[in-house]
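User: Please predict structures.

Assistant: First:
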Amino acid sequence: MKQRLRYKILIIFVLCLFTFASRVLANDAVESHHPKESAADSIIKNVMTFAPSYESIVSDYKASLYIKGKINIKKKNIILRYVPSMFSLKKGVREYLLETYSDLHYSAPNIYDQKVKAFQGTVRGSKGLPGLLEYFKVNIYSSSLIGDDRLLSPIAKNGFRYYKYSIDSIMGDPCNRDYKISFTPKYKSDQLAKGYMIISSNVWSIREFYFSGISELITYSCLITMGEVGSKSEFLPTKYDVDATFNFVGNKAVGKYVAVLDYKSIELKEGSVQKKEKKSHNLSDSYTLQCDTNAYKTDATTFGVLRPIPLTENEKILYLNNELSQDTIVKLKSKKQVFWGRMGDIMIEDSKLNLSNVGSLRFSPFINPLLFSYSKSNGLSYRQDLRYNRIFRGDRWLHIVPRFGYNFTRKEFYWSLNVDLEYLPKKRGFFKVSTGNGNRIYSSRMLDELKAMPDSTFNFDLIHLDYFKDLYLNFEHSIEVFNGLNVSIGFSAHQRTAVEKSKFVINGDHYMPPPDFLKKFKNTYTSFAPRLRVAWTPDQYYYMNGNRKINLQSKYPTFTIDYERGIKGVFKSTGVYERIEFDMQQRIKLGLMRNIYYRFGAGLFPNQEELYFVDFANFSRHNLPVGWNDEIGGVFQILDGRWYNSSRRYVRAHFTYDTPFLILRHLIKYTRYVQNERLYVSALSMPHLQPYLEIGYGIGTHIFDVGIFVSSENWKYSGFGTKFTFELFNR
């Protein structure tokens, strides 16, 4: 009775939160009454009206991009070495300099292809302060200033909901005025910024745009100078000035960057071109990948010719001191010191080895909290990945990923090896091989025992479950028959060995039963099953990067049918079974930084005659952490792991709503570090669970993501759990 009452109270509380959030969002517009704010609002409305046209008016441009950065280490300690994207510091050196010169090709919508032609600096490699490159790719007329919907623009369509505006000054003559408009966020959040913009009244375009704020561990400010009115570069930046301060656990680094763009060609979009893009699913004219940057020029002579801004005397001294120190290090450092220094880097830094004519190998640092994850159902886990890539002639691609990990809660070690060979990139033709050890599982013999138990008395702890270790090998050949339709054919093989072998005892003595009797008590079972998988995404958009086809978004969901049939006698296989699963999923963008994700699926083992193992492909538990955004809206967070193998059929559904501003900004004054909030609803129907429900709420920050979930079984409250992942430097 108490459990039912607690569950009803919880449901009422969640419904109240939904109602409160929807009412607040519906009535969020605030009217301005101050004269300066009212005048500024009318100017901003004009800018907002023209912004969508100005955002896409440039269809293509080519330019040279020069970036110069100076970094000053104000404070440092040993923890700074653990920052994955931070460059390696030199003993006794506080000031560093770096320069890059690139060919930049932009194509709508918002796709940049940057070919670095030359690099020079006093830092090892091309790293600077983490996460600064995106500040040199700002389209000020876009609704999002930075990256993937991470910073809401003050001239976005819904800007009045989040910003206040005021006139700082008016410049120019009455016929050609420029307005300096300041904007400040209504809420403290990393998703918002403060600053100003200078607006030309005749065309309502922006001459200068300044914004500042906090992004993860960086306090930044960015001043963008735009082209002159009437010129082809009127809607494009000509210069960036970026200041950034990096603070992390007693470490402080200050960076000052300047970037200059020299445009070689600018093409403005015409109506006919825009219509053509809408009709075709091929967006190759708008999408390109960054090219290989192994052929950097690093000599001073090259930069002496390319550099548009001369070096200062202080910068020349930094280069000179760096050359002198390099000569000294080469003389003093022994091979042993070099080896152990490199081993230390491997332990705490992202490592990438480029091997000439062999490929590249990349792996995460072994000491890295990002590789840990915790949830109630899965416990504490650790994961490590290595990635090998090689591109062959014709854009054929080989990708090898060894992975290993350990689950501290279940005290189990996991490993896997995945090999992908894309032999026909134009048709997404792949050969895929994967092998490893899976979750421990029990046989279908247990299902008969489970089936006999009524729902009212069902209890896993009262059942003796004979667990088996799983060693698997999967082979698959997949190809895209036509745009959006992928067909995969292959096989799945398993060898399952009993965790505890059967023992036969009579009067305290062990004995071996007759062979006919032993057949019923196998300690090892082998299965071999051909497999067919068909996935279809209607209206699939894509682009071609050379010969490689890269699929993008679609307005429709992806439908998948997966069929597998076990065959007896092949490679000594003992199981005859059939598995069929259906899956449908889609992510829908509702606007800036707001998304809905839904997933629906069902599965069935129709053949129930032979002994087999209920091991669904879509409805399964991850034995190692996979990160917050990998299916977190499409899996059950606190469902007992034993349910995944306890039924021959299932039906499930998931719904996730993701938004940066939902509830917390109305309840808590300071929510700066909360980057997004999520609501989860999941349901599962299977024998003994009619139904299982999970409701959850989560927040995402730049350091970690956390979610809380409650569940019910057969309309009765069953449990409470959490999901926690580290996200520091991982976005």
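Second:
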Amino acid sequence: MAANKKINIAELDFDAIKANLKEFLKGQSEFQDYDFEGSGLSVLLDILAYNTHYNALYDNLAVNELFLDSAVKRNSVVSLAKMLGYTPRSAKCASAQVNIQISSPIAGPSVVIIPALSPFTSTIDGKTYTFYNREPLSATGPNTVYQINNATIVEGQYLTYRFTVTENGRYIIPNSNVDLDTLRVRVQETATSSEFQTFTSSTSLVDADSSSRVYWVKEIDDGLYELVFGDGVLGAAIFPGNVINIDYFVSSLDAPNGARVFQYSGSPPIDGAVTNVFVVNPASGGDSPEDIKSIKFNAPRSYAAQNRAVTTEDYKTIIYNQFAEAKTVAVWGGEDNNPPVYGKTYICIRPKSATKLTNQQKSDVVNTILVSKNVVSVIPEILDPEYLNIALDCTVYYNPRETIRSGKEIEEIVRQTIFQYDDDDLQRFDGVFRHSKLSRLIDASEASITNNNTTVLIRRKIAPRYNVSAQYLLNIVNPIYTTGLAQNNIYTTGIFVAGSDIVHYLDDDGVGNMRLYYIGPSADKIIVNPSIGVVDYAAGIVNIKNLHITAIADIDFEISIRPSSYDVVSAYTQIAEIARDHLTIRAIADETAAGDLRAGKNYQHTTSRS
């Protein structure tokens, strides 16, 4: 046998490393025919293999941290993103828009001012959050009632900090969860100077010269931020003895989102006055700092966008990076619109804490985030999302001999499986409901489940236009099921129409017409208008014309549609998601699966059509 004097260095497994060391030693004349397992040398080989394995693992992890795709530590991901010129999004403070009314028992001054940083409080789940107006609010009135409209108030803990500039000094904001959008930086020449020079945040070197009073922010360890100032060439320099004054808000993250009842907690603007607060837009926008997954996704795309919005991906990247409230974003050019509208870019954003953006949020995206990055000749327009709510009726069969769980417990397991599928695969613009995939997940959710029969119905809420004869054009993209017969493949909730106090409904006749009807005294269907609209079953389009609604009979005006396929897709402004309030689950013990040959005659069949 030829002597093995080479070591295989390709192994990372502990046992393989030890085996390679043995093979190497067996190739030496001193250890031929040596019993490694029965000697103390085996312990030494364990130590060598352990040390080699430990170092290999450490080196592998260290090398992974050198690359954005494989890094797992936040510090490493942030550092690598920094090399791409990307600063991860900071925490965001929730903000709300309110109207403020000040009522004075006696005639007051012509102008009333609510000072900056006056507190407004709101309580959610037993915890009180404080909001502040960042600028003074003034109102004029008839000396007894003063009105302030559309004031913005921001939640958070307001803090200040001072740095004295030194040679090679570092200026680190000493708090985590700082909202960098609220950061204000002012510099004094000395601690006793009465003049302050305001420095503004910059994300680029292009426009910075020796007189530009700008600063840059970089994230460092533990989620803290460091301020970096210019050197007198790129950005105005600061000098030893100068004093840096900063103030900012520390966010409570997403906890205050949804606050809609506020009380003014500051000093009365007028002695004896009563200050009432009315919500225009509830609190929204509070969010955690950008997570690792998002940084990995956005950093290379931000680098590719080069701080300008040209392609649809540029728009998405900029919005995801600078608008924390965005949960999912769709962007398409006007040339791809139906019908085409050249010179426009259409943007649809689903926020995290609501179903659509407020008017103020739309304005912020267009006039603050995109205004300096958008191509001048292209006009961005923000549209509201449309929701395809998928109502599921799920019957689950299980073998009672293979589980100790009750039918109710199995139903709850299936419900959570469906919710998880909704979270993972849907609720975004490119989400596709795949019936077979969900069916497999349901079957695999509990070992005793033998099969399931899950039917699908698409529900769509319609915003009614009251007291006018209006058109409602609905494009659900998905083909609509029909057999050519009136089988209620399309039907709506109840409405009241002009000239009648009876609840009316709409459905289709199976051959392309929408009908308006009500239920007669004998529970028969009385057709009022047999062609109030048309249906294109193949294209998935419902066009209702001249419908004069005076009121709705339910909480919402909804249309339900049986799709031709149980796979549901979305396009443009549409988001497919499971309607959790219209989810029906039944668990049935399948005695045929338990081996009872007589049980087939009592098998509980369910229909495969919704």
